[in-house]
């Protein structure tokens, strides 16, 4: 009988108090080894572990990891991301005590000079969704601070993904009735530049308009988001192992398992949406048998990505319920089919 290899100790590079706190928890097997292999990513590994434990019905263990990360973070950002996750869980609880505790954690985050830009951007979106616009705008200003110190005219040619905090800030300024400032102007200028650089976009009369709350909207200067673009075609989770064994999935991410396979696509979608904020993106999942049948009739390679896209355009018409708009709402089911909420799966901050 083979002996089970013992778990390695937690790496020495981790903060000693964090190591001690984690040592008191029943961490899943393999987590210590991940931390040993990549101690610089301890915060991300622990956040992801908490999401996985939540999805596996072990919320108390997930909360224990988040609290350890909050109290003894490897970096300030790690602790703040953990605090945001604790706030989300407390608000989902809905009880009066939980709501009060969430407000206390939020108050700690919002102490002057504490909040880092990355967590501030995430918190701004959470607070905007909750209707807490004043504090959301405060967070958006923190998330945008490195951009706000730049002369607005110098940002016109900036990468659209880098401008995301200013897009959130512009929306919040519009929602709170503030007049446009020079950085709001540059947000619209970047959107127009993206459209000029992507003339293939074919605007659809039935597409939803730009958010009416963005300052200066309503004049028709910027067209609405385009129709279906950037479709990502992937195998459904239930067929993943069969698809991989039959050679339909050959990329490196697929070899690391279904979670990495779907999250690699999430990264592509995020990058693409940052570069083309006016474009709409969708995902669609296929079954092994239907892809094999489609390829067989047409004498195509069922493992070829081009075949997968041809299948989607041929077999999944516009308006089909199989076409999933990306990104889903934070509290909606994740597009990857995990049955977890998007914010706790592919949309979690651990994967940003």
TrEMBL record:
Compositionally biased tracts (Pro residues): 1-14
Residue ranges, annotated region (Disordered): 1-25, 201-227
InterPro entries the UniProt entry points to: SEC_C_motif (IPR004027)
Positions with biased composition (Acidic residues): 201-214
Superkingdom to which the source organism belongs: Bacteria
The protein, known as: SEC-C domain-containing protein
Organism from which the protein derives: Nocardiopsis exhalans
Organism classification: Bacteria, Bacillati, Actinomycetota, Actinomycetes, Streptosporangiales
């Amino acid at each position: 009988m083979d002996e089970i290899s013992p778990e390695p100790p937690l790496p020495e590079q981790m903060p000693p108090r964090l190591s001690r706190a984690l040592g008191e928890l029943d961490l899943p097997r393999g987590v210590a080894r991940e931390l040993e292999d990549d101690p610089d990513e301890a915060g991300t590994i622990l956040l992801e572990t908490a999401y996985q434990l939540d999805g596996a019905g072990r919320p108390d263990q997930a909360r224990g990891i988040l609290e350890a990360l909050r109290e003894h973070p490897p970096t300030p950002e790690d602790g703040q991301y953990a605090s945001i996750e604790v706030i989300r869980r407390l608000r989902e609880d809905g009880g009066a005590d939980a709501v009060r505790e969430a407000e206390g954690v939020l108050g700690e985050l919002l102490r002057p000079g504490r909040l880092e830009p990355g967590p501030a951007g995430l918190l701004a979106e959470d607070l905007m969704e909750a209707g807490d616009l004043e504090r959301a705008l405060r967070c958006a200003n923190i998330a945008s601070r490195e951009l706000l110190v730049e002369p607005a005219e110098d940002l016109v040619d900036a990468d659209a993904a880098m401008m995301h905090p200013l897009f959130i800030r512009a929306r919040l300024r519009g929602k709170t009735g503030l007049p446009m400032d020079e950085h709001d102007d540059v947000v619209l200028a970047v959107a127009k530049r993206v459209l000029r650089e992507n003339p293939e976009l074919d605007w659809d009369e039935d597409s939803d308009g730009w958010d009416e709350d963005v300052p200066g909207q309503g004049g028709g200067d910027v067209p609405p988001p385009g129709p279906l673009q950037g479709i990502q075609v992937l195998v459904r989770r239930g067929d993943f192992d069969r698809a991989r064994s039959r050679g339909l999935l050959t990329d490196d991410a697929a070899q690391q398992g279904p979670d990495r396979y779907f999250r690699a696509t999430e990264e592509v979608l995020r990058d693409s949406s940052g570069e083309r904020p006016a474009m709409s993106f969708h995902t669609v999942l296929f079954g092994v048998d239907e892809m094999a049948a489609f390829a067989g009739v047409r004498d195509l390679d069922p493992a070829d990505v081009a075949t997968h896209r041809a299948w989607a355009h041929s077999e999944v018409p516009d308006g089909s319920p199989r076409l999933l708009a990306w990104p889903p709402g934070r509290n909606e089911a994740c597009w990857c089919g995990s049955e977890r909420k998007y914010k706790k799966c592919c949309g979690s901050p651990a994967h940003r």
